[in-house]
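#dry-run=false #mode=assembly
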Amino acid sequence: MQKGKTSSVKSATESHECRLPLLKTCCSWAASHTVLIVDDEPVTRTAMVARLTRLGYRVLQASDGKSGLELLRRERPDLTILDWMMPELDGLAFCDEVRRDPNILSSQILMMTRYDQPEQIAEGLARGADDFLSKAATSYEIIARVQAGIRTAMLIRRLEQVTEQIRRKQDLLERELQSAARYVESLLPAPGTLLPGIEMAHAYRPALTLGGDLFNVVRWDDHSLGLYLLDASGHGVSPALRSASFSTFLREDSLLNQVGSSDPGAILTEANRQFPLTEDGNYFTIIFVLLDIRSRTLFYATAGHHGAFLQRLSGEIIWLSQRSLPLGFDPTNVYQTAAVPLMKGDRLYVLSDGLYEIPSPDGELWGQPRLEATMREEGRRPVAEVLSHTIDAAARWHGQEHFPDDVAVMGIELGI
Amino acid sequence: MSTGGSPLSMNPVFRLDEALSRVDHDRDIFITMVELFSEHGPKDFAVLKAAVQAGNPSAVAQSAHRLKGAVMQFCASATFASAKKLEDIGRAGQLTDAESICAQLETELADLLDALQQARDTGFGA
Amino acid sequence: MADAKEEVVSIQTKERSVPNGVVLELTGDLTYANREQFKAAVEAVRQRGCRHLILHMDDVRFVDSSGLGLLALVSQNFKLMQGQVSMVKPQTYVREIMTLANIPKLIPVYDNEQEALAGYKMAA
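#status=ok
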């Protein structure tokens, strides 16, 4: 800005007259918007600055491309009016710089040029000008184009604001989900010694931030141990909530109160009564196991769960399987308890169907036969290793690191 | 085309009413513009003349464009036409007639500056 | 529980009357995404007092765990009115999934409509 010239511009803003009432330029609207004028030629620039100031806009000016860019970055005007031809950084190069910079690339740029050169216009558009203005244009046209440019700038700003709001809300949601997921994982049992001679390892991989699979241990007394793996059907946050609620029912004190026994069949029969199908048809599948050390017997009952087996020291695999209905399918159903004698060195594996029903890229399920083959290969490696290798094998079958469904696995070494 | 001073309202070197209406009759701004032009116009012309003498077409086009832009604000058609011609031939790379047009422009520019000063001194007929 | 893939396949339903019942021909996927359509179609049939609903599954190529739950739900609702739901010609893959969840215990599965009608008559 040249010395001594500010006074004339200032007086225009102070007097603030709307000189063109025909266009009904609203001065208060203009006052909330900033226009940047970049032109090295002082006479033209002065005329343009004065005109826009008179209309009530807040006007910034720069006499070359470089300082114009700095001003643009600092002040973020609603509209930039730019001369085509300037030394060093000309109008087109200015546009290049703007469109290259993610912070300012959505700026509105009005390029000053002659209209009778379509190649210029095409090139200007290609390099990033939004609209064109002739230096010989009438006041009306200048005002109209400036207004149009500012309207577009406002639309773009609003869009950017809304996008930012959405992004922030999503971040918040994601953080809350992670917090909920940490709570759910805190419900899981600690690995290690459950009773003398009984060691447990486990792994848990929810498909999304929050999962519907849950497993836990019920310490009945010094010589009997309950454990379960449950799976809630459905999508989103709902399965996790329902699982958490069901796991409350499955606590030792609650079971003693409501079922009156540690018998797996009785427990599932009562659970079946208390947890019917939801109105969307959602339900639980579950296996409940009772390890009775004194009688060296494993008791179990299943409701639609097919992923548990006993592996003998010899390598023989005994599936803990029953023809059973998922919980809630038939409210009058009575669940039967089955029994398997325990032998020294037995290992109990309980897996969610998210693992053994995992599909290959072609859609073929991994399935129990392949799971068995993998278990046999693993042999007597430590349980924790067996679990992680099995998960890796399933992931290789699936072809991706990320599982589509929750995966929960428990391995218990019975050194009794 | 007559040169030199004449009664303001009939000065043909530049059209005062038109030029004033371009700035919505803001006389303060117009004075500022005249002062700026009086300072920069001759300098810009010197650059143009040097470019013509050096036979540099792009420099001719650039400096002629700059001068033309300023002149346009004062609605001085003859001066504008000469500056535009120089810009056009500079762009086309054909500087054959550049010197003669430049000489004509020199005269027209001097006349314009005089006329603007005169108009200013007499207060733009206010 | 393996659930539906990302692509959206809807479900179409077509009603047909038969002696003592209604056949609902299903085409598409029986999944969580399509639950409302399926429920609405079944509900329309049930509300007219139909006692025997036959689900024609020939053109159902996929049932997810939610779909299984919906079938169980539908079966329960019909039993409440002393009605019955039967199923005809599920595709191999769908039949496997349903067997694992023991659905045939709730909804008998037949190879054709005649057998379904006969089966209902006998049970009634």
